[in-house]
Structure prediction request, 218 residues.
Amino acid sequence: MTPKQPTAALPDAPTNPVQALLEAPLSLRERKKLKTRQTIRREAYRLISEQGYENTTVEQIAAAAEISPSTFFRYFATKEDLVLSDEYDPAMVSALLARPADEPFLTSCREAIIDLIRALLQHERQELLTRMRLVTEVPALRAGLDRSGNSPRELYLSVLTRRAGVEEPTYDMRVTAAAIGAATTEAVLQWAAADGRQDIADLVDHTFALLGSGFAGV
Prediction:
């Protein structure tokens, strides 16, 4: 009898549903890159919590993650980028595009964002709080929030244009994306400034109610 040849072990399925959502559309190679990014970020946050943002260097982060500084820069352009970027955008885009095409965009955003936030709170609350607390406390990060290529405004704008089937956004789309992006960012920063004591899902829900009311009563 021909001995059975060993087969390569399949990677374990992630038990964290947020991680599963992030990995679902990725190839094996892309999943490995995602996990490397997450390891780098996790070690960075650990070091920053121990010695502060300014005192934590790229070299220290790379050593803790067992990579070279040059490898760090293949994943993150700068130390700021490590905090300001995240892996959630593709999941958010998919969730928004899965909403009914004739649904008001504000409703689509409200439902999709709150669902994702509740999942993040259950499985990745501390990392989200650490990240946003850094943005509120470190001036360079707060200033870089508007410069980030991963800004919420750009995400909403890309979805709006795809839903409408157009290549260039209209003025109304740009205003809508800017308003929702600024409002949701303010909600998350408010949550971080209060050290996570508020329910961020309720805060975001209130934010969308305010947007939907046309700021009535303000």
